[in-house]
Design goal:
Two copies of one chain form a homodimer. Chain A is an alpha+beta fold. Chain A contains six helices and five strands. Chain A has a three-stranded mixed beta sheet with strand order 4-3-5. Chain A has a two-stranded antiparallel sheet with strand order 1-2. In chain A, a hairpin with a 5-residue loop joins strand 1 and strand 2. The termini of chain A are far apart. Chains A and B meet through helix 5 and strand 5 of A and helix 5 and strand 5 of B. The structure holds manganese (II) ion (MN) (2 copies) and zinc ion (ZN) (2 copies). One manganese (II) ion (MN) binds next to strand 3 of chain B. Chain B binds a DNA duplex (30 and 30 nucleotides) through helix 2 and helix 4.
DNA sequence: CATCAAGTGAGACTGTGTATCATCTTGCCA
DNA sequence: TGGCAAGATGATACACAGTCTCACTTGATG
C-alpha cells in the first residue's frame, strides 16, 4: 500500500501525470513478489479486473523505469524482468528458485570499477552487476530435503 | 581466420558436429567487430552469399554459447548481443559509441561476490558484471572535437 | 561405403515490444 | 468551477525476436 504510493510519487516527481491506469499498475507492481515481467503485470492486472491496454503496461513500465522506481533485471533466460526498488544506485541478488531479491549496495564495487577503467582506458559511465543463486530460505528448504 | 578455428574447435570439444553452416557462421561471428546480434549475423551471412536458415543462426549461437565460445551481453537497450571470447570466466567493457569490447578478469570481484553472499545469506552461483562507456579511441576522438 | 543420430531449412507460430491515431483525462488557469 | 491544451490511453496493426515442426540432408563412426 505505502509501497505503491512510493512508486506513484516517484512518477509524480519525474513530471508524469498521475492517471488511473498508472496508479493501478503501480499498485500491482509494488505488490509483486520478486521480479516481474511485463506479461505478468498485464496478467495480474487482468486477474484483478483492472482493464488496461497492453501498450499502457509497457508505457507505464517505461515511465517507472525512467522515474527510477523500478529497475530492469536481465534474467539468464533472456527475459526482461523488473523490480520495484530504491532510486539509489545498487544491484540485485535474485533467487533462481523462488524469485526473491535482495538489494546490494555498491560499496566496494565502485573502487573496482574505477580500477577497471584505469586498466582498460575506457571511460566507464554505466555498470550493472547481477547475481543469481538461492535465497536463505530456499537453501534451508533444499538442505532439509536431503537432511 | 585462426579466431574462427578457435570457435570451431570449441564446438568440436563440446561434442557438436562440425557442419558447413556452423563453420561458416563461426567465421562470420569471429570476424565481427564488437558485439553482434543474431539479426546482424544473419544479415552479414546473407551479404556474403552464405545461404543458411534463420533458425540455424539461432541454433548455432546457442551451441556456441553452450560451448563457451561466445557470451551474451545484455545491452542497456534491451537487445541481446554476443561476443566471441575466451572460455574462462570474465566480464566485458563495451564502448557505447563504436561497440568495441575489452575483457576484464574477475580478479577482485570474486572476493566481493563472496562477501555479498555472506552478507545476504544467498548461495550465489552465478554473477554477471557488464560495463558500458567509451573506449580509449572514442574518448580521444571526442576530446579532439572540442580541443 | 552404409548407417543413423544429429543437424538443416522452410515456414508457421508465439511472444515481446512499438507505432498510429482517434478518443479521453489530467493539470492548470481564467 | 468550467474550459482547454498537452499528455495519456486503448484498439489495432505492425515489426522483430525467438521457437517449433517436420520432411529432408549430412557428418561421424565403423
Ligand atoms: Mn534495484
Ligand atoms: Mn566473454
Ligand atoms: Zn528463494
Ligand atoms: Zn569506441
Amino acid at each position: 500500500m505505502t509501497e505503491a504510493m512510493l512508486v506513484v510519487s516517484a512518477l509524480d516527481a519525474a513530471g508524469y501525470r498521475l492517471t488511473g491506469p498508472r496508479r493501478a499498475l503501480a499498485t500491482v507492481m509494488a505488490e509483486m513478489d520478486g521480479p516481474f515481467t511485463a506479461a505478468r503485470v498485464a496478467g495480474e492486472a487482468h486477474d484483478r479486473g483492472i482493464r488496461v491496454g497492453r501498450a499502457t503496461v509497457f508505457r507505464t513500465i517505461d515511465a517507472l523505469e525512467r522515474a527510477g522506481a523500478i529497475e530492469r533485471i536481465d534474467l539468464p533466460s533472456g527475459e526482461h524482468a523488473y523490480v520495484a526498488c530504491a532510486p539509489a544506485h545498487h544491484h540485485h541478488v535474485v533467487c533462481s528458485a523462488c524469485g526473491h531479491t535482495a538489494e546490494v549496495a555498491d560499496g566496494a564495487l565502485v573502487a573496482l570499477v574505477t580500477e577497471i577503467g584505469r586498466r582498460t582506458g575506457f571511460r566507464i559511465d554505466e555498470h550493472r552487476l547481477e547475481l543469481f543463486g538461492r535465497c536463505p530460505s530456499c537453501v534451508r528448504a533444499a538442505g532439509e530435503g536431503r537432511g
